[in-house]
Amino acid sequence: MDENKAKTDYEIGQDNITPFGLDIHNPVFLISGISIITFVIVTLMFQQGSAEFFAWLRPTITSNFDWLFLSAGNLFVIFALVVCFSPLGRVRLGGQDATPDFGYVGWFSMLFAAGMGIGLMFFGVSEPMSHFASSMGGTAMENGVRTDWAPLGAAAGDIEAARDLAMAATIYHWGLHPWAMYAVVGLGLAFFSFNHKLPLTLRSVFYPLLGERVWGWWGHAIDTIAVFATLFGLATSLGFGTQQALAGFNFLYGWGTGGVAIVLLIAVITAVAIASVIRGLDGGVKVLSELNMGLALLLLAFVFIAGPTGDIVSTIISGAGAYAAEFIPLSMPFGREDTNFSQGWTAFYWAWWISWSPFVGMFIARVSRGRSVREFIICVILVPTVLCILWMATFGGTALSQVIADASAPVGAAAQEIKLFHMLDGFPLSGLLSLVGIVLVLVFFITSSDSGSLVIDTITAGGKTDAPVSQRVFWCVFEGLAAAVLLLVGGAEALGALQAMAVSTGLPFTLVLLAMCVSLWIGLSRAAKEL
Amino acid sequence: MFKKIMVPVDLAHAATVEKAIQVAADLGKLHNAEIFLVGVTDTAPGSVAHDPAEYRQKLEQFAADHSSRHGCTMTPKVVICNDPAAELDQALEDYGKEINVDLVVMASHLPGFMDHLFHSRAGHLVTHTDISVFIVR
Fold this sequence. Notes:
Strand content of chain B: 15-25%
Strand order of the largest sheet of chain B: 3-2-1-4-5
Number of strands of chain A: 4
Shape of chain A: globular
Oligomer: heterodimer
Radius of gyration of chain A: 22 Å
Distance between the termini of chain A: 11 Å
Structural class of chain B: alpha/beta
Mean pLDDT of chain B: 86
Structural class of chain A: mainly alpha
Number of strands of chain B: 5
Radius of gyration of chain B: 14 Å
Largest sheet of chain A: 2 strands, antiparallel
Shape of chain B: globular
Distance between the termini of chain B: 23 Å
Low-confidence stretches of chain A: none
Strand order of the largest sheet of chain A: 1-2
Helix content of chain A: over 70%
């Protein structure tokens, strides 16, 4: 049973200190905490300068390193599928006789809710519409460079082709690639933690490559960037989600969207997330994730049945077909002519997903002990991809049908954050549906916020999963405060700065993920030989 | 009067339960009761053990040492739950009910600031079960 155990003398928690009854890693906790506070203060003190800096940083990263993001993304998909269907897939996380800690429903709900739930609410309607509009517009050139934002060669004026291209591009951004990124990190953490008995933190994955050095500054650096990426990613999403929910309430009931509303809403979300982490994985996080999943599937089923069902079915089929057909052209890292799309959309998405991967991967790892590697990859990559196809085709397909039938349909002109509510406006019981939509946005946030706090707490406690609950509460409050302060003082621009910061962590993490694949391959091959 | 006595054991802070185990041993002899040393763990590697099997081994050793020291049999019991930091109270309550414990002897700490935010372990058992609770300080 212990033949895989890493031969290290490192004791989990040996670098921890215990001030005020806490149990925190020295120095990861302090460095992360202090630098996050410093970042928020500096961004707010020098708003003009930081806005300019980040407005420069984000496109610079995505346009100079688009080839790296796209190539790496493809590699992760290939890596995951090869591992899944090779003999390596037979290795079981936690040893061959381990049994799963969670049942299928709870497990899948948790990994899905943490991974992308909220984005589906925000982009499910708006992204297909953006690609559809830009594809219909055709290509535009200026000095030999494409200035349009359409994917691939666009589809000027051809409604059917534009619809397929829009669905293919959207599914591409939400399908195999992002989930493969999550799967690589999740599998790496779960394998090195449960099979090699190393602490459940990012640095452990590098033990085969760096040896004992992972317990020193190399490891501190990896863990600190992971905390950074997680907290900034969560705070950004919390901020954007707050805006979407407020816009929804404003649309439905005419409620205000000012400072008081922002603070109240963030406070409510944070309070529920705190209650959830105090109740723990089974009593809080899992219950909320299942509730969430149930509500989301209900909404999906209702839109499917009450909406243009025929159009939706054909969008599912032709969308999935177009995804398969355009998979390789969309994945090409070099020689792209549609640079606005491949850099501004795809590379940006990849950087964003990768910056989320430490958080989502770590959370998925925590709940996946007892699953075989094959089962893990199928459930973390293939099932969510199918669900994303259904979701995007149902919500995006309905909205597309609305604008194709009537070019002046309100969903077309609406601002991005309220497109969902305008789309639902044409439905029976639209008031109730929109309310369900807002509730889903909020609950998806809560489930990201509580699982994120668990993850940050575990990393900053040196991989201990049983550190005092007050530490999770601290990180939960910290996230809420960062989002509220940034939104109140700096508005959407400050959020943009934060997002740019999160995305920029995607660049070093791309390299981290690539190294993780090597490490994981070495470890899994050894384990598979001993089966 | 008592038939089954449960002593929750935190192997990470083993020294803090010594007094509670002494009390349980004395009461056990007086009432001719069985004594269970219950340890709660999750499946992730931690500071005490790297997996549940290693944890079980350590708890068995701990129980054997204390059985011979106090001259009575103490049975080790490992309870696995997914999130001990948050779900320990519930896990102890469930297990206590499952094996029909009628007395819990547990170590406690001096009340501090955090107790205003989070109730104590013993407090949970007192308010949620009809088991007698003996808190040793």
